[in-house]
Specification:
about 65% helix; elongated; 5 helical Cullin repeat like; WH-like_DNA-bd_sf; isopeptide bond; 29 helices; 3-stranded antiparallel beta sheet; single chain; ubiquitin protein ligase binding
Length: about 775
């Protein structure tokens, strides 16, 4: 843009110097400044077209004006005209704005008025800038000395008071109308809007102040925006599906952000988008989420990942946006889980392994939905959805299937993964599935029930060499330890340690019999277990054959030499043996290595003395309970490998039945593993496990109470129950009645006492 001050006139310098030597009277000086400066610059700007000036003020003319001001301000009193000049300047600006600018703006309307305002403001800034230079000396000394408003500030303030305040309502209405039209997808002059908005910004009391912009424009902008989107929201909510509504809302929010970037002040963005969020998202949220055929529940049922992701993006913008969604997610997952429980409960007597797999599949599905972090999953791993998912799973994972607790089912599932005869997976797949099981385990309220069943199954896998992988066993224990602490897995770790120590003891025993030149009729391998780590096993009074008896006595003597403070208790029910069987099928001698349990081996060894024997005689020789012995006998005569024959040949065993060595037995394999007839886990055994858990819980509750009281010394009943519950919650959900019972027992045993004046207060007895 060319400047109205570009032409240089070479003449007149001598005249300028000559003038400076004469006293300038106020009227003469001001007339010269007004005619040659104020009025001339006004006319130049008035005649300009498209930023091109027809006339210009030369540099020499400017110098004469400046010198006139300088002289009038530096003359000695009474001819120092600083104060009158300042007042005349203010009056000239006032007259110019009142008589020439305001009427011309008021003559126009709507967009034309806006364009006129922008033009007049730009011209006004040019005039003030020019006059500020001309009156620079006045500014630097007189204004500064008296702390008066600077001339440029006076110019802006006068424009605000005379012009802007007179037309601001009409201007605001016009500009808001343009914004409305743009929202209705009409083409508007964005540059014009930006220019007018900048005037509102510049009308502030200082450059840093946005008071005028905020009060005279922004407040009404936000108000009209709220009204506009309130109407739009109601219209969309009535006719559009929830996904379609969200797409429109997201598009409008993007448009509003662009609107700020194009022509609004940056400080407006947060406030404008907040208003949009309130009208488009917050106010109609419940209505939208509960839409019958397209609401949040429907999106979850149909697994609409894109729409769910958009829903999270939008509603995470508002502080109260996510909790209602989390509630729906919680209810949805709970309903899905309870439906699975109901379906499985109707088939509680069938195979329950698929139920655990379905639980894992559901958990995988919703873990993927919730996500594990930013940019992952529809809900980007937000804590409120993890909490909702956790609470939902805790509801149905703790429901029993028939009479079977999920804790037991999870343990059975792990057993099936970790034993040789179970599900076959690669190391990576096994590790991944175990990790998923442990996550599901985290939702159990009765983790100690899982621990008890898991301990029994781990014992079988270790003692009967059924583990598919020692690394997998250790990995599973490590995962449980990480989730529940060292105390939870101490017994499991002790069991694994015992197995390793047993190998060392076995090596020492082998060296012992070699050094002592002890000859055993049978090879013997012993696993020495620490009673406190392992499940409780029934003792038996099995009468061992002499071949086995010699081995046991030899080992006992060896062990007694190693330690004097431990006593061995033999658990034959978990033992195994390899027996060499000699048969004569078709008259030819054929030998088989029979891999059997200790009880099966004892039964077979009796047939070295007689080819046939009554069941009652076998029981008399071995001294085993009849029901237990029947299962072992049947495994040898009606199973896959008929080592013995039974007369009469039925699947029931009576005391009078005769068992005979099957001399004609034959099989292709030399080495045969004779399977046991699986004993179904009876309700009595489950009840026994529960009883063990209940007993352990008593000790855990008492230990927690004593720990708390030892620290606190005295505590009220409710606080003690609460603290004990909090400590125990990691392993099981304690019953307050049970805690009260244990408190009473500890009082009886003189660990605690009631306060004499307050029976609700307990004291610790050191």
């Amino acid at each position: 843009v060319s400047s109205p001050l570009t032409h240089r006139d070479k003449g007149g310098v001598g005249q300028l110097l000559a003038m400076s030597n004469h006293v300038i009277l106020l009227e003469d000086g001001w007339n010269k400044l007004k005619t040659g400066g104020v009025l001339k610059i006004e006319e130049i700007l008035e005649d300009a077209q498209g930023g091109v000036y027809k006339h210009k003020i030369s540099t020499d003319e400017y110098s004469q004006l400046y010198t006139t001001v300088y002289t009038m301000c530096t003359q000695k009193p009474p001819n120092n005209w600083s104060e009158p000049l300042y007042n005349n300047y203010c009056e000239a600006v006032h007259d110019y704005l009142t008589e020439r600018i305001l009427p011309r703006i008021k003559d126009k309307h709507d967009e034309s008025m806006l364009r006129e305002l922008v033009r007049r403001w730009e011209n006004h800034k040019t005039i003030i800038r020019f006059l500020s230079h001309v009156f620079k000396y006045l500014d630097r000394f007189y204004v500064k000395r008296l702390s008066l408003p600077e001339l440029a500030e006076v110019g802006s303030q006068k424009f605000l008071e005379i012009v802007f305040n007179a037309v601001k309502r009409e201007v605001r209405t016009a500009i808001l109308e343009l914004i409305r039209r743009e929202r209705e997808c009409e083409q508007v002059d964005k540059h014009l809007i930006k220019s007018v908005v900048e005037i509102f910004v510049e009308m502030g009391s200082s450059r840093a102040s946005l008071e005028t912009y905020a009060t005279d424009f922004e407040e009404m902008l936000l108000s009209t925006t709220a009204d506009y989107y309130s109407r739009e929201s109601a219209k969309w909510a009535e006719k559009d599906s929830f996904p379609e509504y969200m797409r429109k809302a997201e598009d409008r929010l993007r448009q509003e952000a662009d609107r700020v970037a194009h022509y609004l002040h940056s400080s407006t963005e947060e406030k404008l988008l907040k208003v949009c969020d309130e009208q488009l998202l917050q106010n109609p949220e419940q209505l939208l989420l509960e839409k019958e055929y397209s609401g949040c529940e429907k999106l979850l049922l149909d697994n609409k990942v894109e729409d769910l992701s958009r829903m999270f993006r939008l509603y995470s913008r508002i502080p109260t946006g996510l909790p209602p969604i989390a509630n729906i997610v919680r209810k949805h997952i709970t309903d899905v889980g309870l439906a699975l429980v109901k379906k499985q409960s109707s088939n509680a007597d069938g195979d329950l392994m698929p139920y655990v797999q379905e639980l894992l599949d559901i958990h995988d599905k919703y873990t993927e939905l919730v996500g594990t972090g930013p940019e992952k999953g529809c809900f980007q791993g937000h804590t409120i959805f993890h909490k909702a998912m956790k609470e939902a799973f805790e509801v149905f994972v703790n429901k029993d299937i028939g009479k079977t607790a999920t804790a037991e089912l999870l343990s059975n599932f792990c057993d099936n993964l970790l034993k040789k005869s179970g599900e076959r997976l690669s190391d990576e797949a096994l590790e991944e599935k175990l990790e998923k099981v442990v996550r599901l385990f985290g939702y159990l309220s009765d983790k100690d029930i899982f621990a008890e069943f898991y301990k029994k199954q781990l014992a079988k896998r270790l003692l009967l060499a059924r583990s598919s992988s020692d690394d997998a066993e250790r990995s599973m224990i490590a995962k449980l330890k990480l989730r529940c602490g060292a105390q939870f897995t101490s017994k499991l770790e002790g069991m694994v340690t015992d197995m390793n120590l047993s190998q060392d003891i076995q090596s020492a025993f082998s060296d012992h019999i070699k050094d002592k030149k002890i000859k055993l009729e049978t090879d013997l391998t012993v696993q020495v277990l620490t009673t406190g780590f392992w499940p409780t096993y029934k003792s038996d009074d099995l009468n061992l054959p002499k071949e086995m008896l010699q081995c046991i006595e030899t080992f006992k003597a060896f062990y007694d030499l190693r330690t004097s403070h431990r006593r061995l208790r033999w658990v034959h029910s978990l033992g195994s043996a390899t027996v060499l069987g000699t048969f004569r099928p078709s008259g030819k001698v054929k030998e088989h290595d029979l891999m059997v349990s200790t009880y099966q081996a004892c039964i077979l060894l009796l047939f070295n003395e007689a080819d046939s024997m009554a069941f009652s005689d076998i029981q008399g020789h071995l001294n085993l309970p009849a029901e237990e012995l029947k299962r072992y006998v049947l495994s040898l005569c009606v199973g896959k490998y008929k080592i013995l024959t039974k007369s009469p040949p039925s699947k029931e065993v009576e005391p009078t039945d005769t068992l005979t060595y099957n001399v004609a037995f034959s099989d292709r394999a030399r080495r045969i593993k004779v399977p046991m007839i699986a004993a179904k886990i009876t309700q009595e055994e489950k009840d026994a496990t529960r009883a063990t858990v209940d007993e352990d819980r008593k000790h855990a509750i008492e230990a927690a109470i004593v720990r708390i009281m030892k620290t606190r010394k005295s505590l009220e009943h409710q606080k003690l129950v609460l603290e004990a519950s909090t400590q125990l919650m990691r392993h099981f959900k304690p019953d307050p009645k049970q805690i009260k019972k244990r408190i009473e027992d500890l009082i009886h045993r003189e660990y605690l006492e009631r306060d004499a004046s307050n029976p609700n207060l307990y004291k610790y007895l050191a």
